Amino acid sequence: MIAAGVLLLAAVVVVGIRLQSVRGPVTVDAVASTKIAQHGVTGGPVATEGSRAAVQLGNELPVMLGMAALALWAVFRRDARGAIVAILGPSAAIFLTEYVLKPGFDRTTTHGALSYPSGHVTAVVALATVALLLVYRYDGPWMALLWSPIALGAVAAIAFAVVALRWHYVTDSFGGVALGVGVVLLVAGAADSISGEVRRPFARGRLGT
Fold first, then answer.
1. Distance of alpha carbon 60 from alpha carbon 51, whole angstroms
2. Taking Cα atoms as reference points, which of 149, 153, 91, 76 lies closest to residue 122?
């Protein structure tokens, strides 16, 4: 789990170095935007309103409510470690995005706004990752597999929406996905190590049992 988190964060850094101080889209962003426009999936009021609704998932209030709901679920299951991961994972991912990586890489849109990685995408992906980890932890792999399309759908919706609304580029969405998953995996892995459950990953078992 920790190894996977490190690899994902390394990918974020590698792409960020490539995008450092870049203003506007790079080639892959331009190509992706052209393909999206050619298929007409961003045109019309319905598509625009759908994208605006999707990005609301990454706003401060929904994210805080999501963290609280996941933490309360863990507390209800008498899982202190799960509650810590539910709060610390998304919080750490958002902090890294807004206060370390965005100003550090200084990748901007044509309007001058810091854009890499996407904060909205990072927040939603971190929440979705925590949710799947908790489902796997409490109910096993089949139930996690059953719920994974919902989590993946939320991730895909916001990753696409920020690009469709021209808030971010495709590379910004990629960075947000990798960062959100990577940080949560690192936090969960660290929680395992600290609690001495290295051989029983965060996915299963309770703290203190």
1. 17
2. 91
